[in-house]
Design a protein that fits this description.
Shape: globular
Order of helices and strands: EEHHEHHEHH
Strand order of the largest sheet: 1-2
Largest sheet: 2 strands, antiparallel
Strand content: 5-15%
């Protein structure tokens, strides 16, 4: 998948065909990583903090002190439904982060996936499209 799908990287030919350029931010996820992400999305859809933290750690995210709440909140902000994005969530995240910290194991795909989700969220917001929540993915 590409994590750089902005209009400058999309060309439209005279016949209306689309062309993509600039594949510098492309990542191909192996099957085990895709399965971990699927488990994370299902945990997010179920709003199960223990499971969210478990699968997020399996993808390489670490909490220095093992905070389930911090891991789950970070995953919800990055991959969950956009309705979580609020001032209260930000304030809670600041409190949790002041007591603990997160780090990511070397996993370029996780970082790129986080970026892709942010690009899609921003594009959906600008286009007035409803945010695709994990509850929709859970139904698939």
């Amino acid at each position: 998948f590409s994590t750089d799908p902005h209009p400058g990287n999309i060309l439209v030919a005279p016949g209306g065909q689309l062309g993509l350029i600039d594949f510098g931010q492309v990542c191909e996820m192996d099957l085990p990583t895709r399965l971990l992400i699927a488990h994370l999305l299902l945990a997010l859809a179920a709003d199960n903090d223990e499971e969210i933290a478990h699968w997020y750690q399996a993808l390489g995210m670490r909490s220095r002190k093992g905070s389930v709440e911090l891991l789950a909140l970070n995953a919800k902000v990055k991959f969950g439904h956009a309705s979580i994005l609020s001032k209260d969530t930000f304030e809670r995240y600041k409190v949790l982060n002041s007591k603990d910290s997160l780090s990511r194991a070397e996993n370029g795909c996780l970082c790129r996936l986080e970026r892709l989700v942010q690009v899609l969220r921003g594009s959906s917001f600008l286009l007035g499209a409803p945010s695709c929540g994990t509850s929709l993915w859970a139904q698939m």
